[in-house]
Hints:
Elements: E1 2-11, H1 15-20, H2 24-35, E2 41-44, E3 47-57, E4 62-79, E5 84-102, E6 107-110, H3 118-132, E7 138-142, H4 146-154, E8 158-166, H5 173-180, H6 184-188, E9 195-200, H7 212-222, E10 226-233, E11 239-243, H8 244-247, E12 251-254, H9 262-294
Antiparallel strand pairs: 1-6, 1-7, 1-12, 2-3, 3-4, 4-5, 5-6, 8-9, 8-10, 10-11
Helix pairs in contact: 7-9
Amino acid sequence: MADVYFAKFNINEEIYEVYSDSTLRDKLLLKLYSSLVTNFSINDKDGTYKFTTLDKNPDTLVINGRLVKYGPGTHVSYDENADDIIETLDEKKAAYVTFSFDVQNEIIGFVPKRDFGFKQFLQRFKSLVEATAGIGEVQLFLETDTEKLEERIKFLESVNEITVRLIPPNDDREDFKALFGTDADDVEDSGATKFLIRLFATTKRTLKISSNYIQKLLKAVGLGYGQMYVLGVNRSGEKVRIRSEQDTPYTKSILDLNKDSIPEIAEKTRAGISELKGLKARRRVIKNNEGSEKE
């Protein structure tokens, strides 16, 4: 079995303009939808990157296709007659990742490969979008299985450090205030569109995961607006590191024979997005109710 990963696509550079104009988000997403093309590529030290075999649905704003990288490489095979290894040079040796991008819901489903991992896919996807869409800088974060993340944290005897990378939510100013505890206008004046939050406990104490503040950070990560790193100690006294992207991503299983199939990945992505929307809706309600009770 293979896994379909999910990435939350986020408008970042124009986010405060989106807060000020309720129609702008949809306009930017339509611009994004139109900008993904197969006749543009980026070259760097690792090779050439481009979108290929794109299939766009203007009614649903879903784009299915592949992100391919190619460049000089070597194919290795076994020659039975010579009983030896044969190496063949290929100037356009390729690796690719198949994806399905629901632009309206801002979620990408994809199956990473050993030679084209999730970090490389997210970075190349981001670079291609920023070079062609004209919507400013964007950010992509893997969707996190926050239930699994919290379960992993609960097994720790103590939590010594939490680091969170966050961006402003794509929804509205109210979401911003709920997650960050301050008005978007105040932060906009600073020019900040990315945030790095680091929490430390003393050696004799532990960070309280159930606290309202840390629960807000978990909520932001669970909604697709960031990633979390946790450092703690387990019951055996060993240091444990938990990274949301590597250790607790939200995934859907897919048969190996279907991991490159555009229709199969599109269907798995559709099902995953439906489930994610339900999980996020419940997460908003639960956390908001908990916050109200504490207040």
